[in-house]
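#struct-pred
JK: can someone run the complex with uridine-5'-diphosphate-glucuronic acid? inputs below
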Amino acid sequence: MRTAPTVGIAGLGYMGLATGLGFAHRGVRVVGYEVRADVRRELARGRTKIHEPGLAELLRGGLNSGRFQLVDSWAALLRETDIIFLCLPTPRRPDGHIDLRPMLRGVRELGEALRTPSPPRLIVVKSTVVPGTTEEVIRPALERASGRRAPSLTVAANPEFLAEGSMVTDVMQPERVVLGVSNAADERKLRAIYRAFPAPVITLSPTGAELVKYAANAFLALKVTFVNEIARLAEAVGSDIDPVAEAVGLDSRIGQKFLSAGPGFGGSCFEKDVRALVARSHDLGLRPRTLEALVPSNEDQTRHAFEIVQGALGTLRGRRVAILGLAFKAGTDDVRESRALPLVRYARSAGATVRVHDPVALENFRRAWTAYADRGTRGVRFCTTVKEALQGADVAVLQAAWPDYLDFPPMWTRGMRRPWVVDLRRALPPRVRDRPDLHWVGLGTASAAPSTGPRAPPPARPSGKRRGGRR
Ligand code: UGA
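RT: done, structure tokens with the ligand placed:
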């Protein structure tokens, strides 16, 4: 009897690692290759720097069962495996297109290793690449580098839909598996691997599969952007976005998810993918006006979130702003495109000093801020405790809704110069919002409207006027 295929994973970042470990957990033998030797060594010891709930446990389980192994070269990966999934990064270029250089470097190296005679291979592109890339760029590059063609070498696409913070659940219980294949044999092989996953499998062409991924992310980005625009409207008319979004989302054609207003979407995917889809559409002579509007509207929302903070104090000159939550959302240590970056920049430009805190993303943020700001870390203090971040602050801004913040104990407000709390996610529960020792302002609620005055100032803490501060 033919034994089950062994899967190779090339690239063990967030997505490659979670994908490989998900396969291993479902009983597939997996061999991983990562070009960064330090990452390989760490993984081999059962450790990962990636903060992702359940991932470290899954790693140790995979290593202990022997179903997840690591190799240190493309040649070894090829020797050990039947099907290779490319999980290589596809960052964005300044013009919106994706940067295929890291992917093509990997493809060239893999192609050279494929020159050694070996049984037929299926290479699967799991990375997010714009529609047409697998067929028009990756397959030809692999064929050139390896000197092989179908049936000795075939290429498929199989996009991932993992969200950071819930990668392990998403990988174990996918809502769908999308296969982009160009022949029935490849479809059979991929279906065999996914047999252990309880999910519907949709088969299309590689280009169609790539389009599914972009359409899905663009639609999610659209939902977030849409609700953010409605939230601005809710503030202006004196309403509250959450019950509005809930009532709207109860229509099953709309759905409740991704209707939570905030400071704008962040993360490594939405902006990059929307920009790439727009750039690809332009290349094809199309004008996708809805897609084109998403990133500008998202930027407006971040600016708007900042203006809520500024509106609370009247001026930020000489004030101290504390930003709590630096990851692009709670549950991850990833700060890529985090809204905390522009928020800190706006606050600094308005003359405030800033203290920042995050339970897990502080170091990543420090590095990202240094690269983003390109004028050093002057005026920004990176705090390892919330207490330090809030000490002497005129306003606390909740950017990511980490559970650690949600009690907001009175001892935190005691250390603040003014007890304004601007909650960009409306995450603080009503019992905290209503406490007399703080002024809660929620994005998407009437409290954030520019014309709204403050509630009565807390005792022994003269807070000044809603607009225009003291000291
Ligand atoms: C996203 C998609 O959700 C995944 O399905 C996809 O696989 C992934 O991109 C990818 O392409 O790799 P991710 O970026 O990890 O996942 O995070 P999301 O949970 O989608 O959140 C993105 C941003 O939208 C965050 O800044 C989040 O705070 C924001 N958001 C999300 C809102 O402001 N409101 C919401 O209701 C939902």
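RT: quick notes.
Confidence is low (pLDDT under 50) at residues 453-471.
DSSP finds 17 helices and 14 strands in the chain.
JK: thanks, will look after standup
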